[in-house]
Design brief:
Low-confidence stretches: none
Order of helices and strands: HHHHH
Oligomer: single chain
Mean pLDDT: 91
Structural class: mainly alpha
Helix content: over 70%
Shape: elongated
Number of helices: 5
Strand content: under 5%
Number of strands: 0
Length: 124
């Protein structure tokens, strides 16, 4: 493996690690919000169900708005790059030895397109 390929592999691993850390933090925030939602029941047990309803509604509305906004931003960003990403297709030239790389590229590209469609359905 040449130096450039090793550098790209290392950069990919680092990017995956950073993204994994961010997703772990997002999971921690989800758990914190779940704890907060459980704590809201005290208002109902103290005879103030209206407060729990209002707080639960606000929390869910804000969460959905922030999540939908994030998904729409990411969807737009990557949809805007699809043509450039597609141009990154590895050359095939009817050479059988390049078929696996070519197929892997199109599988990954199709997966991204499917995820983008799902993001559109979630945020739209």
């Amino acid at each position: 493996m040449d130096t450039a390929t090793q550098a790209i592999g290392e950069a990919e691993r680092e990017a995956r690690t950073r993204i994994a850390r961010h997703l772990q933090e997002l999971h921690r925030l989800h758990l914190a919000l779940a704890d907060e939602s459980r704590a809201l029941k005290r208002f109902t047990t103290e005879g103030q169900a209206g407060i729990e309803i209002a707080l639960a509604t606000e929390m869910l509305e804000q969460y959905m708005g922030a999540s939908a906004g994030f998904l729409e931003n990411m969807r737009g960003r990557f949809e805007g790059r699809l043509a450039l990403l597609r141009r990154g297709e590895p050359a095939f030239d009817s050479r059988p030895d390049r078929a696996p790389e070519h197929g892997t590229f199109w599988l990954a590209f199709s997966r991204l397109c499917a995820v983008l469609r799902r993001c559109g359905g979630v945020s739209g």
